[in-house]
Design a protein that fits this description.
With 86 residues, the chain is of the alpha+beta class. The protein has two helices and five strands.
Length: 86
């Protein structure tokens, strides 16, 4: 489960050999959400509203990098790190 970014207590992961649709895992404390890369919507789990807003803001800035990370992980390659929110 490679960590690709970390900011404001939120950790972003993309797993190897994941199922479609392309997505990433965002974990904040005991909360976890699976967020679609193309739609930037939660399709499993939940995050507090403020944390979710930060994750979506970050993902909008890095959508292309997220798709590249997704592709690398699906091909059993370590995904690149992505810059956190400032």
């Amino acid at each position: 489960m490679p960590e690709i970014s970390r900011f404001y207590g939120i950790v972003i992961y993309i797993f190897f050999r994941e199922h479609d649709p392309p997505h990433f895992h965002a974990i904040y404390g005991e909360h976890e959400a699976l967020i679609g890369i193309q739609t930037l919507s939660v399709f499993a789990g939940r995050l507090p509203a403020r944390s979710l807003g930060l994750v979506v803001e970050w993902a909008e800035l890095h959508k292309e990098e997220l798709m590249e990370a997704w592709t690398r992980a699906r091909n059993h390659q370590l995904p690149n790190k992505i810059e956190p929110l400032p």
